[in-house]
Amino acid sequence: MRYAEMDFGEARLRTGPEPDTPHGFARVRVLACGVCATDLHLLHGMVLPRGATYPVRPGHEIAGVVEHVNGDGARVSEGDLAVLHPLAPCGRCSACERGEDQRCESLRTLGMHDPGGFADIVVWPASRMLPANGLEPGAAALLADAAATGHNALKLAAVPPGGSLCVLGAGGLGTATLAVARALDPRVRLAAVVRSEASAERLRALGIEVHRGLVGAARALRRNLGRMDAVIDFSGQPGAPAEGVALLRRGGRLVLGSVVDAELTLGASSAFMAHELQVVGAYVSSLHDLAAVIELARDRRLDPSAWVSHRRPLEELEGALELAENRPPGTVRVVVDCAAE
Q: Which domains can be identified in the chain, with CATH numbers?
């Protein structure tokens, strides 16, 4: 089988034997795998979670056909189109008992701890897969992280019905979050801060208020929309949290959903007391989040195919990573087609 391997600054396509399928696991023939910003961080070299080491075999936004299920209690059957949740929690700790998969202290991560989906075959716990029959594989793959992570961030944002939300950094993940927000509440008022004019035009066509550039975004959006109930930051820019705070109404909530390799600056501390502001972090998602966005897609309230701007075959993985890195105009999400011809 073919699989991708990453080390610092290098991605290689290798061949090797097919993996075994332990009890409780399922073997999936990968059809599509999305390229995420995390894959780019892995390529450039990042601090890995405890227990993971380089080289890694990346790819965590996966959709494929279930070929074999070893054991009982799986949520998928052989022949299903499955979407894989990228986290495998221990299932025993207090966080797991509360259904807070992403807060488990013994998490294993697909594409870091365990071989990921830029490959012909992936083996993963059968309990961490959900059926997505009827969906196009390339679109379904993006539900695994982009949409499910957005769903989790929206839960934490707690936007009231008919309320207002701004997403800072409306690239692939931010675009998915805006789409999920609208699917959950068609009356929600949406705004976004983007870098490129192409992204601005794309979102304006969807009826979303857009400001291009982070500097001055809060002032401009306050002028047009007033203060917001919630702001979600997926920009990864050091100045974004303070700009988000400046946009919030009294009692509003800022959700930090991206890695910022800089000191966190939130602005004047007195505002948090006087305005009763809240700041929370958001990390990936739970299996419940994934189930929710799959249901939205099946009901045609959510169209993840609209986020797929580029597709490349597995043998062109380096080109796919380059596309995701450089983000030429029109780029939303890059999907790698893994089915061998």
A: 2-146+285-337 (3.90.180.10), 148-281 (3.40.50.720)
